[in-house]
Design a protein that fits this description.
The protein folds into 2 domains: 134 residues, Aspartate Aminotransferase, domain 1 (Alpha-Beta Complex), CATH 3.90.1150; 256 residues, Aspartate Aminotransferase, domain 2 (3-Layer(aba) Sandwich). The chain is built from 14 helices and 17 strands. Strand 11 and strand 12 form a beta hairpin. Helix 2 packs antiparallel against helix 10. It is globular and about 75 Å long.
Length: 407
């Protein structure tokens, strides 16, 4: 491939020129949220300056322009994940709301006492708690497929959990705490042989690799805008059209109705049935701009570049005595979670911040993962397309000096 244009990309992200404690910012907290390019920032600013109005219901020029931009962003999302049509793209506040939407609509309509939902041991809390709540409401049972010490799904044990009682499989595409990439196509194909629908939590995967929902044949795919270089407060729930049409609305209000009377209301068709009230219009448009930006670079090129960053960081980390990598799956995205002997992850995060290095320290909304590894927390450096090997060197130098300080 041609040389990845990382310096040109970095120039598009104004925050990367910031100084933190008089040192150049080294931003390695991308698994929590990615930074925003000028294209996204400008699209939101331009919309508020020139086109802002509420959408769908207005006939005046501003409303029409705002509606056109909003719906154009929906089509950009459709193309980005290769959905069959825009009716399958539902805008929500983020992956968390998307999973709750599926739990409270598809779940309540299809899951009853004694039924089973299967997840994995590496899930984010967002793909655990909504299913626990549904099980408490319905009397269904939550089953957890185990993983090995490398952070990989133990596939035979996952497969053994699937039976006639299983009504849904909900699994993370890429673990936010470990970087593990699950064999999602195999999971979907196995589940579908038993007529079990599959939801993929793609919040962590979507910025790192190409995603084709038709090729995967997943029934639902959810992700957040803020991890995809877009704004916070917006996300996407993809669902197969037939499933979405059969599901009841999630919320009631404006824009999701066809008719309203005091006796009875009827509901709008897809996708508006699931988009009650005034949405995050500017944020959706910003998400569309982020997708345009990523399409220019190419998701395959991003994946290849980030794989090299991760390999370099992993090799460097293994040379530091007292550093233990948490999660070494064979298929892994650009996340390096680690612990240091006798140094709490929160101290690691605080000390690295004094050097201008932003990482995440904590349980990463994955407490069961921490329990599995017998640690209270990990330090997590997570890489994006604008990071460099030089920044990884700064990180490793910071870790080395930190170990020296703590003796």
């Amino acid at each position: 491939m041609t040389t990845f244009p990382v310096e040109r990309i970095r120039a598009d992200f104004p925050i990367l020129a910031e100084k933190i404690r008089n040192k150049p910012l080294v931003y390695l907290d991308n698994a929590a949220s990615c930074q925003k390019p000028n294209a996204v920032i400008d699209s939101i600013s331009e919309f508020y300056r020139h086109d802002y109005a509420n959408i769908h219901r207005g006939v005046h020029t501003l409303s029409v322009r705002a509606t056109d931009k909003y719906e154009a962003a929906r089509d950009k999302v459709r193309g980005f994940i290769n959905a069959a049509n825009t009716k399958e793209i539902i805008f929500v506040r983020g992956a968390t709301e998307a999973i709750n939407l599926v739990a409270q609509t598809f779940g309540k309509a299809n899951i009853k006492a004694g039924d089973e939902i299967v997840i994995t041991a590496m899930e984010h809390h967002s793909n655990i708690v909504p299913w626990q709540m549904l099980c408490e409401e319905t009397g269904a049972v939550l089953k957890v497929a185990p993983m090995n010490v490398q952070g990989e799904l133990i596939y035979p044990k996952f497969e053994a959990l699937l039976n006639t009682k299983t009504k849904l499989v909900a699994v993370v595409h890429m673990s936010n705490a470990l970087g593990s990439i699950n064999p999602v196509k195999q999971i979907i194909d196995t589940a579908h042989t038993k007529n079990i629908p599959v939801l993929l939590d793609g919040a962590q995967a979507i910025p790192h690799m190409p995603v084709d929902v038709q090729e995967l044949d997943c029934d639902f795919y959810v992700f957040s805008g803020h991890k995809l270089y877009g704004p916070s407060g917006v996300g996407v729930m993809y669902g197969k059209q037939a499933l979405l049409e059969a599901m009841p609305p999630y919320q009631g209000g404006g824009d999701m109705i066809r008719t309203v009377s005091f006796e009875k209301s009827t509901y709008a068709g897809l996708p508006h049935k699931f988009e009650a009230g005034t949405p995050a219009i500017a944020e959706v448009i910003g998400l569309g701009a982020a997708i345009d930006y990523l399409n220019e670079i190419g998701m395959a090129a991003i994946a290849e570049y980030e794989a090299k960053l991760l390999a370099y960081a992993t090799d460097q980390a293994k040379q530091i005595k007292g550093l233990k990598i948490i999660g070494e799956a064979h298929e892994k995205g650009a996340i390096l979670s680690f612990t240091l002997d006798h140094i709490h992850p929160h101290d690691i995060g605080t000390m690295l911040d004094s050097l201008g290095i932003a990482i995440r320290a904590g349980h990463h909304c994955a407490m069961p993962v921490m329990e599995f590894y017998g640690v209270p927390a990990t330090a997590r450096a997570s890489f994006a397309m604008y990071n460099t090997k030089e920044e990884i060197d700064v990180l490793m130098q910071g870790i080395t000096s930190l170990i020296e300080v703590f003796g």
